[in-house]
Design a protein that fits this description.
Length: 481
């Protein structure tokens, strides 16, 4: 056993020795120091060139990035969508919005004797809108209208809003009066506004101080604003439902003072269902010194039922003049809760009229309306219209939003106007209308409306009779952006 173990050790030693000799035989001879140094110098030079190239490349990329960043600082921002188109300065202090809307109507009217154009297609409004902000606190708006084949400037005003609680608006715009008058035509519940609006001015030139107090932070108000909105202004003075000479010049030195306050008291406290409740009051105080020959009151079908056209009396001029005080008061309210909407307002007007130097009358007129709506598809009703949750799509299950609506409104003219200031055989003393409607909000830009309205009149026919009732079917296709 001992002999075998010793032989194995000697064999292993021999194998190791042989391996060492083989390794020495195949290992190359070491190079001298100069050759090694040359190789190291070449590698260092190549590395230095690569570093130099990378530095040049990085510097060029940095300069290009800085140049692009500098260009971006001075390049305008622009875009568009369902709310219109805009262009904005890089500092975001100046912005221009380009918006607009058209309303294409069809009216079918029957029953009233004085109808001269019972069935017609017509553009009710064609209005491009240019509005924006300068220097972060100067708002502006310019809005012409091209319906009826004529160009009319409806809005052109500037609003300085450095402080939301105290802003100054001046130019041509809606005097702060009726609740429905101040509502955009794009968001009306029915095709035409109710009778109270016809006793209020349309557009006028003037200046107003206004503000929003206590803006809601945790909820959105159904008509914007805050707990209290106030407006107080001085205007040229416009007759009912009109603008004086297109509202661009005054016809007398008299001015009209207009004021309005509107409160939404339950925006962030109290019962949740009352958050959409608002109420207010507006009034005007001034003097009229102008002809009322062109003033008229119309139904929703745009059919005239009253004008200041008196009966002929020898020795008296045929023109009726507003010649004295004119005052109005209009309490108003709305209520929105989920898909339910309600609006109500009342207008009472007092004014002095004359017909020549010897004949005058103190006229008192009034009008009121109540309207209600329900969004069948469940979206929230609001003063600013309905936004469909599922717009109509060609490939999908969206059908837009559907709303039903109903309204009753009436207007009563002073009986003392007849016959010396208005002809009882052609002008009615009272109009009472009931309206039902169906509104289809196809998407944010398209809307269709269908209205049926029946109107009854008191007076307006020969021999003291009543003007025949009017039945109107009205439709509208609206494009707004």
């Amino acid at each position: 056993m001992h002999h075998k173990r010793g032989g194995g050790v000697r064999l292993r030693h021999a194998l190791v020795a042989g391996a060492l000799l083989a390794g020495l035989w195949t290992t190359p001879a070491p190079a001298d120091d100069s050759e090694v140094k040359q190789r190291i110098d070449a590698l260092e030079q190549e590395l230095s060139e690569l570093k130099s190239q990378m530095a040049v490349k990085n510097k060029a990329e940095e300069e290009k990035a800085k140049e692009e960043e500098e260009k971006a600082k001075h390049a305008p921002v622009y875009g568009g969508g369902s709310e219109g188109f805009f262009i904005m300065s890089p500092d975001r202090e100046n912005i221009l919005f380009i918006r607009g809307y058209t309303q294409f109507d069809f009216r079918a009217v029957a029953g009233k004797e004085s109808d001269t154009n019972s069935n017609t297609f017509a553009f009710r409004r064609i209005r491009p809108v240019f509005e924006g902000t300068l220097l972060n606190f100067i708002d502006f708006k310019i809005m012409p209208d091209f319906a009826g084949g004529t160009a009319t400037l409806f809005d052109a005003f500037t609003n300085v809003h450095y402080f939301q609680e105290a802003m100054v608006e001046l130019g041509k715009f809606k005097p702060p009066t009726g609740l429905e008058r101040l509502q955009s035509p794009r968001n009306l519940m029915f095709l035409e506004r109710a009778y109270p609006t016809q006793l209020l001015p349309n557009r006028d030139l003037g200046v107003q101080l206004w503000g929003i107090l206590g803006e809601a932070k945790n909820v959105s108000a159904p008509a914007g604003g805050g707990y209290l909105t106030y407006q107080f202004g001085v205007f040229n003075g416009a007759p009912d439902n009109t603008s004086v000479n297109n509202g661009d010049t005054a016809t007398s030195n008299s001015k009209e003072i207009v004021g309005r306050v509107f409160a939404q008291p339950f925006l962030e406290w109290g019962p949740t269902f009352l958050r959409g409740f608002g109420l207010g009051v507006a009034g005007t105080y001034g003097r009229q010194d102008q002809s009322l020959a062109n003033l008229k009151f119309t139904t929703s079908a745009m059919d005239t039922f009253f004008t200041y056209t008196p009966t002929v009396v020898k020795g008296l001029p045929s023109t009726v003049m507003g010649d004295g005080p004119q005052d109005r008061i209009t309490p108003q309210a709305y209520f929105y809760y989920g898909p339910f909407g309600l609006m109500a307002e009342y207008v009472e007007q007092y004014e002095r009229l004359t017909r020549g130097p010897t004949l005058d009358v103190d006229e008192v007129d009034w009008a009121w309306q109540v309207s209600t709506s329900w969004v069948l598809t469940g979206e929230n009703a609001s003063y600013d219209g309905v936004i469909p949750r599922s717009p109509l799509t060609l490939h999908g299950d969206g059908f837009g939003a559907w709303e039903i609506a109903a309204r009753y409104h009436e207007i009563t003219l002073d009986s003392d106007l007849f016959p010396l200031f208005a002809n009882p055989s052609s002008s009615a003393r009272r109009a009472r209308s009931a309206t039902v409607g169906l509104n289809w909000y196809i998407n944010r830009n398209l809307k269709m409306q269908f209205n049926y309205e029946r109107t009854l009149f008191q007076g307006g026919a020969p021999k003291g009779g009543d003007m025949g009732s009017e039945d109107a079917f009205l439709t509208r296709f609206q494009l707004a952006f």
